Amino acid sequence: MQIRARGLGKTYPGVNGAPPVRVLDEMNLEVESGQLLAVIGESGSGKSTLLNLLGLLEPASAGEIWFDAERVSHLGRRAQCRVRGTRIGFVFQSFLLLAGLTALENVLLAARYVGRDGREAARDAEGLMERLGVAHRRSHYPAQLSGGEQQRVAYCRAVLNRPPLLLADEPTGNLDEGHARVILDELHAEAHARGAAVVLVTHRADAAARADARLRLVAGRLAP
Amino acid sequence: MRGRVFPRGYGFTVLGIAVGMAGLVALGAMAERISRFIEGGDRFVLGQISVAGEGMGMGAGFTAGGLLPAARMAEIARVPGVAIVQPQVMLPISTSTSHFLTVTQELVMGMDPAAPLANRHYQSLPVRSGRPLAAGDRKVAVLGSDFAASRKLTVGATLPIGALEFAVVGILDKTLTAPDRFAMVPLEDARDVWLRRDPLLFRVFGTGGLTRADLNSGAAVGWQDGVDPDDLARRIQAAVPGVNVTIPGELSRLLRTSTAFFSALLIGIGTLALVIGGLSLANTVTAAVFERIRDFGVKRALGATDGQLLAEVLGEALRVSLWGVGLGVALALGIGALVDSRTLREGQQLFFFSPRLLGFTFVFALLLGSLAAVYATLRIARLSPAEAIRRGA
Prior knowledge:
The complex is a heterodimer. Chain A is an alpha/beta fold.
């Protein structure tokens, strides 16, 4: 799947009479299937906002997002939900696992809203968790897991539906070196072995160096 | 997740709802108790015409009139429309004036066991254990439930009234109104109690031309089908000299007027209970949903539609509300049982957990819980997934 963004911008309204805050401006990018794009830049440069817009997690103030020939940025609420559920996987820095669900239930959450067959999804989830080394923690709650385990569970959730687009926002930000490497290797495998388009926001120079393409943001704009 | 009996992570929410619902149910049960008492009294006075002899009732000590001689009753029976005239002797069980004319007063009620009850709304009284009074009975008593409970009397026990002793042959089911505090005995035995208790009456009796049949503190008059009881009461008053006749409709109005304070109190208690319980439940459910705003954001990111989220939240709110109201009702029942076990020793029952109260509580809680959940969900649904995740962080 080809992902294209044209003239993408995001401006947050000012609060209590303050002027509006322009976070992202005139952003153009393209990511192809099988490509891992690293987005780098200082904190506040608009990296996470870019990822949110590409993932349809919030509406853009300007511009368009295309998945192949479909302009997904202008779809209705319900259609965007379907796109998020079937075509996008998210890996967040803070994992965002649901505290009331076990590790396996958290992984299976990805299948719940897209109408997947429960048994098939459970089989896939078990396989993924086995591969990531967290199968033995399937019945534990997030609070009972280490940070590395939580991120691996969150990663399983992100890829359960084999989305053609994987968005990872600082996925290694809260992990030690060993766990970080596992996640980064998985993201590379997603792109190069499975053919997903992967957009990785990172501060790690080594991760950016391994990417197929890099994009540097400075104050919400592409750095030359 | 699905299939889990207790909703994980909702312990305090359930507890919060339970406390609010316990308050609602307990206050409601107290209101129901008072309401039943008033309704029972109203049904009773509308079911018969009560007649007493002329006078202030000083001899009888209780009824609103003097002795009602047999001759007067015969005259009443001849008034067109009258179906039955049942002589009665009603005496306070305690002669202490501090017990007179209070709602907690316990009475000895003497009635003819061979005659059917004249009251249209109380043709028979439900017997919980033992048997009702029967023709030919002497020195036996059937007790109201509170009367028996306060004295720890069961069937087979002996009840002393004055110098006489009565064998308890039956205990009535709870009626939540006046008969709960009655000791029903055969009419002749009640006359004996009365004669022994009242020395003045004893001296008059025999010398004043009175016979035992004249020893009645009143009579319950029943009417024939199709007869208007108020009209009949007025006709008796006009046709039979020397009697005090209560007019059922007027007495009912009087009863309602005199209990207007209680009625207002009931409305107040009910409103207060609804407001406290309702606010507690709505606030708790809304807060519980808002607490999970981050989870909403994550679920939206995973593709959940507004409808799917709403269905999930509704299901969870219903489950949480059901647990909360279930625990709340159990808590209220426990408190009620504990309090009533103490007050029953004094012959009092403070709570009545009627099926309609419990049914209403469940429906009210589930409805309000659902509404609160829908309101909170719709508020959150307006946020983008990213905004929901940010706010919940």
